[in-house]
TrEMBL record, chain A:
It comes from the Eukaryota. GO terms for biological process: DNA recombination; double-strand break repair via nonhomologous end joining; telomere maintenance. It is found in: Chromosome, Telomere; Nucleus. The keyword DNA-binding applies. InterPro entries: DNA_bd_Ku70/Ku80, Ku70, Ku70_bridge/pillars_dom_sf, KU70_core_dom, Ku_C, Ku_N, SAP_dom, SAP_dom_sf. This is ATP-dependent DNA helicase II subunit 1. The lineage of its organism: Eukaryota, Fungi, Dikarya, Ascomycota, Pezizomycotina. Keywords: ATP-binding, Chromosome, DNA damage, DNA recombination, DNA repair, DNA-binding, Helicase, Hydrolase, Nucleotide-binding, Nucleus, Telomere. One of its GO terms (molecular function) is DNA helicase activity. Its EC number is 3.6.4.12. Its main location: nucleus. Transmembrane segments: none annotated.
Automatic annotation (TrEMBL), chain B:
This is ATP-dependent DNA helicase II subunit 2. Its main location: nucleus. Gene3D superfamilies: 1.10.1600.10, 2.40.290.10, Ku, C-terminal domain, von Willebrand factor, type A domain. Keywords: ATP-binding, Chromosome, DNA damage, DNA recombination, DNA repair, DNA-binding, Helicase, Hydrolase, Nucleotide-binding, Nucleus, Telomere. PANTHER family: KU AUTOANTIGEN DNA HELICASE, X-RAY REPAIR CROSS-COMPLEMENTING PROTEIN 5. It is an enzyme of class 3 (hydrolase).
Amino acid sequence: MAWGGDGDGDRRPEADEEDELDETDYKTQKDAVLFAIDVSSSMLQPPPSTGQKKADKDSAVAAALKCAYQFMQQRIIAQPKDMMGILLFGTDKSKFRDETAGRTGAGYPHCYLFTDLDIPAAEDVKSLKALVEEGEDADEVLVPAEEPASMANVLFCANQVFTTNAANFGSRRLFIITDNDNPHAKDKSAKSSAAVRAKDLYDLGVVIELFPISRGKAFDVSQFYDDIIYRDPAAEAGSSDEVRTSKAGDGLSLLNSLVSNINSKQTPKRAYFSNLPCELAPGLTISVKGYMPLHRQTPARTCYVWLGGEEAQLAQSETIKVDSATRTVDKSEIKKAYKFGGEYIYFKPEEAASLKNLGPKGLRIIGFKPRPMLPMWASVKKSIFIFPSEEHYVGSTRVFSALWQKLLKDDKVGLAWFVARDNANPVMVAIIPSRNPDEDAGETPYLPAGLWLYPLPFADDVRDVGLPATPRPADELTDKMREIVQNLQLPKAMYNPLKYPNPSLQWHYAILQAMALDEDVPASLDDATQPKFKQIDKRVGGYLADWKELLAAKAKGLMTSRAVKRDAEDEDGDRPLAKRAKPAAPNKPAAGGQMSNAQLKLAAEQDTLKKMTVAGLKDVLTSKGLSTTGKKADLLDKLEQWIEENV
Amino acid sequence: MADKEATVYVVDVGESMADCHNGRDESDLDFGMRYVWDKISTTVAAGRKTWTAGVVGLNTDETNNAQDRQGLDGYDNISVLQEIGPMTMNSLRELRSAIQPSRSHAGDVISAIVVALSMIEVFTKKLKYNRRIILVTNAESPIDDESADDIARRLNDSNIELVVIGVDFDDAEYGFKEEDKSSVKRKNERILRTMVDQCDNGVFGTMAQAVAELAVPRIKPVRPFKAFDGPLTLGDPSKYESALSIHVERYFKTKRAAPPSASTVVINTDRGGATQSETLDEDTEMGGAEFSGVKHMRAYRVNDDDAPGGKRDVDFEDLAKGYQYGRTVVPFSESDFSVTKLETKKSFTILGFVPFSSYNPSINLGETGIIVAQKHNEEAELALSALIHALHELESYAVARYVQKDNVQPQILLLKPNPAIADEFECLYDVPLPFAEDVRSYQFPPLDKVPTVTGSVLKEHRLLPSDDLKEAMGDFVDAMDLSSFGVDDEGNPAEYAPIDETYNPTIHRINQAIRARAVDPESPIGPPAEILLRFSKPPETLIKKAMPDIEALIDAAEIKKVPAKARGRRGRKEPVKPLSGLDIDSLLGESKRTAISADNAIPGFKQTLATAEDDATVETAAKQMGAIVRTLIQDSFADLFYGRAAENLRVMREELISLEVPALYNTFLTGLKKSILSGELNGDRREMWFKHIIGGRLDLITQEESEVSEVTADAAAT
């Protein structure tokens, strides 16, 4: 999914988001992944039987295909514009493309393009699912060849797939899954030509990710793959490009191990901004890159479908701008103006640009505060993760690291002025450190360690809720509540988002998949966000029952004491009105907003509500959170209905 | 707020108002009108019918008011310049020409207030209104204060607020005193002050303060919005008797305010003869009919191999709604449509509790809510209060599943206890947390160690801070502490830059410019108000104080800026090698690639250039790439190969820039443009040119990108 179309959260579609997340690069920020799975007899070998029930049953190929299947499904949900494909190599059969491209299977012997690189279609999901789940291999694809495939051919085949199908994708990755660390042990020239083809891929901009599988013998990358793999030019300084070997053991099946290794590469690491100058103090600037590891995922929008043809087709929409006389308007005629007092106020383009320009892009620290000084309500939108880059300022990483360590040690946050790119709207951010994910005290084991730009609300964003003061708490109730809280901690005493898939999203895509694949629509959803009611009852049911009894008694006490007080006030004729400094309008009865529910009910029963003024009615309705539109009769209806339902 | 407003401005336009005083180079009238225009244009901006205003001129040359017409004495030289009504751009324009300094000084301030007062009384009748009179004067003309007491009483009876803002009035509180004050003015100031004091609702101030405060942004008040009214539960009350249910209300605590958005408009064409570009250049008047809004019309097309261009238009009526599953479209009938929406019931229920220490605010995904007990519900008040205090004492948060109303997506909220220690009321604050799908797993190297290829870990490395650097950073962070750098109202140390002092610079900058332009279309836009950029850099005094620590940190950091030239890819680079360090170029030499093949164009091109020893080789390679691009375009079925052609062009452009031979690209592209636009490449290929080459920023290489280019930015734009 490209940055451009992202909404932020499901609370409000943000009109300015588009403005903020402009395409930073003209190359489309899309990702294409081609799985290259080695189909050799050792890869097809089922694991040795251990007799245990939960033992590993998958051959390496089966595990790899299952991974690919899972990957495909996740991709449809999370990255609907990204491509993927599956290339099997070392197969007896060969297949490239049937169509016109000119090459047939003969071009790449023992390479079988099972799923061509594209945005997955329902058919792709279906045929992969058939192979994975039902083991349906009607075409006898999973039969190893007598002789191994030439790796040069495999790599060139991948080259062609990327060149034709994902020509201008910003991220192109080849995932090689194999257990053979030395495919051309005896053939030096085959090895050399593979290295040459690997260089081609590098020059083409394709990154090779190796997922070695090991059963026993360690996978030795220096045998062959060190000649094939290049350091990712986009990688951070200091990163070791670790290749993790997947293997069964330690209670982990081969599949689980492979899934976790592949999942860590699921999303290509896309920078939200690169080489942003970060000014720690006058005269001290480093450069940082920004990322968005957190982003609210929402179901894809609806589209229009044309059903007039043989199969349903997506209708692409085109917007035409027209003026009041429905005359098509040329781009050059279009101006931007602000509505003001029923008319348009116009600024010349250069004036509009200067209005938007409130300083160059960058992050400028203006000081530091203890973290507890951040008000707990000060939250408006997701944070951006920043990490140092050495490209523009050598030494950025060590300075960044020193700052990160200091903030962690003293529990402090930085306060900074932040402009994400030229002409972006400036925001104030708190700079908050996150701990190493593997550290015991880590708050966020699912997120990387570094600094976060946490957007702070402006005064303009804070609502004054103006609620009345609340009564003194009842100590006994608090004491008993403590026992309940203590007994209902979430697992591992933390909220780990990875344990809570979004039920709406899961449901949406479960239904969609079923419809797309012509399967039965699921009846219900296993919703991990539902509380474990049974467990709650079991663990704290007893406490809760006691507590509720106590609450009832205390509430009764409070009610009585309030009633006494109210009566006393009534006798004094000193209704709450006097407490407020609000000047009383001469002709206004009791301010409606302050009528208690009981008073309202009484008024409704005695049919005296209609004596209230429109202003008074509106006050009451507002205080109940109801709309205040309409004529007096409408307002009365609304209020009466509310009283009936709520009092 | 939605309350109705009726405000009458009484503006002194007497001849003395035309003079400049106290070193100002603008007249008293212009100075005072800064305040009035700002107020009035704010009213115009709100565009509310119920926010009404009127204007009364004092010391006008003419006399035009109801009292005078009724034959009452003492109402000379007072004119109603605008009756009370909604403010529009038109009224603003009319007022601009009406408010000019006069040659009179015989009008009486108190009479003018009476005129304003009766205007309000007549207009608002007995309805609910916020009533206000704002008087702007320099008080140089004599006042008859005989009836001042009566008038103050009448203002109170009618519930009208009286605001008197005087030019160069003395104000000890603000710290202003006019030294060479005339005796008339001194007396008048006293009269007006006494009158304001007699009002229940009165404000008396000096213009300098009012004008200074105009720079302080005003925040649009928003009525609290109740998002939820219902039970917060622990357990399932429908199944378990033990389950707890507290009736709560939830409001928004933060909500991002959006800057005003510009509308897309065109200049009206049906205005007598003037061509569009001319009206634009002489865009001086803000005539109401000059612009009109642009509407959007949508057209729908589908791929059709038989149609010219591969696409054809379809009628909107023939379309169904649907969703995309990968690249498959799944149509839904109207009745099926709701199936993909998860059915949910309005609910707010606690999943469990987590300690403060396991939470980092950087996982917040949005705006904050505030949760309080239902009003007048004793049981709910006590129950919620107990929960808040128990959470606070245990340093715990609650995690809850929140469904705002039926069939709305569930959210996970973190509930934070606020036990009324800092604020006057206790509540829970809530922030939305991420779901599994919202987390992208990105890997980053550790910041406090450097792993090596062999698997060992380095603790000292050029990427890691030395002890000196760590210490210097520590001192720097401590020196730049803001927790008590600010000053509160009483002058005590306080937090610097608290949220209520930070204003959204974008919103107020644009609003201020719009208002200024509405009032005076001719004047250029000024610089942003200083207060908006106040927090764009560290406070100077703090920097001065921390200077030794800053200098020590700069020394320890040893940052070296990479010169712009070295960053680019000019000149020969180190050959790129795989992890093993194998010299691929020598292998390539063996395999002798002579021509660049269309199949492997990009690697072939890059490798040829990397080993090219003379310009002729580069030129040949560029020619070969050019031919490949042309063939791709020519052979492309509809737009099938356009992306590939564009990618080849992109690489070609990038490489030729880095070799400083932009002319090779520019020459080729000029030829290509001609071929495309003349239809030479097998049909209409304009989409390739406009969408991929121009849209993809692959046009001519300009001097800005490559110094040796002969193409200027202006030339490239044509």
